[in-house]
Structures are given as structure tokens and as C-alpha cells.
Amino acid sequence: MLVLDLRLLGAWRRVSLAALEQPTIPLAVVGFCCAALSGLCLVTTNATEYLGNPFVPIKFAAVALGLLNVAVVASLPAWRARHAETLAPNHRRALAIAGGTSLACWITAAAAGRMIGYW
Q: How far apart are CA 46 and CA 50, in angstroms?
């Protein structure tokens, strides 16, 4: 998602959003499914160790907000117009906000996940 989020924020403007989304979105879906499955296994086998860990709810909230952001982006008129050669300024702004939100959510989820082990 990092590459797509950076593109939504305005990086690599010469690369079309439609061309970049084709490889990144399926890869992100597979990555998320693998991470969710391994996380579920980890939580179910060590559930009592995670009770009271303040980073667990932070991670879960960040993942939930990240998934909510995906649903919001998919419904945006700006996302539906991504195949256009040039996007209107309001569409670019909406996608940049969505990309920044996504980046913040997934970085927070990753950082909180790393911190869970140190608590």
C-alpha cells in the first residue's frame, strides 16, 4: 500500500493511477489476508499474554480505520475517475487525503504491532 498511498499523495505523477493500482491492490489484499491470518493465530495461541497490552487496541483500531478508509476511497467519485488522463484538483485533493489517511493507519498498525512484543 505504501506505493499506492504515495502515488495518491502526489508522487510519480507521470505514472497513471490506473496502471499503478493493477499490481498493488491485489498484492495488498494478499498481504493483508496473510497478516490477518497469522495475527489471528498469534492472538488465539497467546491471548492471555495480550490482556492489558495497550498496543493491542491501538493496532486493532488502526487496522479497522485502514479498512474503513479503503471502503471510503472505493466509494469516492475521485477514485471512480482514476482512469481519466488528468484529475480535477478537487479529485486530486480527495485522493491525497485518502492516501495520507491510509498511510497513517497502516504505519500506526505496523508500529503498534511491533510494540506489542516489547510490552
A: 7
Give the CB-side neighbour count of residue 12, counting CA atoms within 13 A: 14
Please state, in angstroms and as integers, the Cα–Cα distance from residue 25 to each residue in 28, 29, 47, following that order.
5, 6, 31
Q: What is the pLDDT of residues 25-79, one digit of tens each?
A: 999 999 999 999 998 998 888 888 888 899 999 999 999 999 999 999 999 999 9
Distances (CA, A) of 9 to 6, 33, 77, 81: 5, 25, 17, 16
Give the integer Cα–Cα distance in Å for 103 and 105: 6
List pLDDT tens digits, range 82-102: 888 788 899 999 999 999 999
Residue 1 and residue 20: Cα distance in Å, rounded? 11
3-state SS assignment for residue 2: helix
